[in-house]
Amino acid sequence: MTSTIQEPREGVKLIMKNFVFINKDTKIENKFYERLKRNNGSKTVAKLLDFSSKQAAIEANRLINEHTNLSNVLNENYFERSKIILTNIISFKGFWSSAFNESDTTVEPFYDEYGKEIGTVNMMNQKYPFPYSNMYEMNSMVLEMPYGDDQKYCMLILLPHPSVTVQEVYGSFQNVSFRDIFARLKSDEEEFDLTEVDVKIPRFKIDTNVVINEALNSMGVHDIFEPGLANFKRMTKENIYISSVIHKAHIEVTESGTVASASSTSIFEDRILSPKFIANKPFIFLIMEKPTATVLFSGIYSKPIIF
Predict the structure, then answer these.
(1) Alpha helices of 123-248 — where are they, by DSSP H?
(2) What pTM, to 2 d.p., does this model score?
């Protein structure tokens, strides 16, 4: 991640911070400790704690909350038998460039990929000339919803074509890059001009808390999890290894913006008509930094719930 992504923007607040919590009995290498002290408070917050005390989790969470406004990130049991805890926090809060009107939000059905109703959602609705495109190579419609005044950040929503699953759309990322998507949106805008789009997306919240060791293993990351193979000698001469990597995420998408959440047929109309983008079935969403095509958050919305 580059420092440019962390620049404050009107209507967008992005916090990226590293936290290093070290058990007071762990012998840390001087060079590593000096580097932590140099960076302390800017991009990294470091703290010696007594991991045997219940206060360790309380103090660690207090520091995280002080810098990010996030609460209860670390559980007490994380500190048991641990030497060092590394935590990376990315917090995003963005207000839509064009907000939804709450009075236009209605309860509507939500379907699976094959047209079966699987629940109901609070469906937000607005008409606005958002960039959008029909990307046949991805078997999906793509909508760009910008945040803030300068629209540097945006949410991309990929809505699969009828009878196409979100997994199939994800597979197309092997051949299509995010820069390709933005280029297509721009070229369609230049060719057709921006047209008012009738947009319906659910108001939603998503919380995840998963161990991602297996995912990292599938990417070729193995040694750091093995007591006999892990090499963290630059940090400490003690024989330490990573027991688990835990990923937590919280996303809220509402009428005002995002905190970093009878027919299922999508209607694909000619540009000269009033197009519709109705996300009433599983879709992919990505919160992006446009100039660098960097993904800050991504996920699949597929389990409808009233929020």
Answers:
(1) 166-171, 178-192, 213-218
(2) 0.81
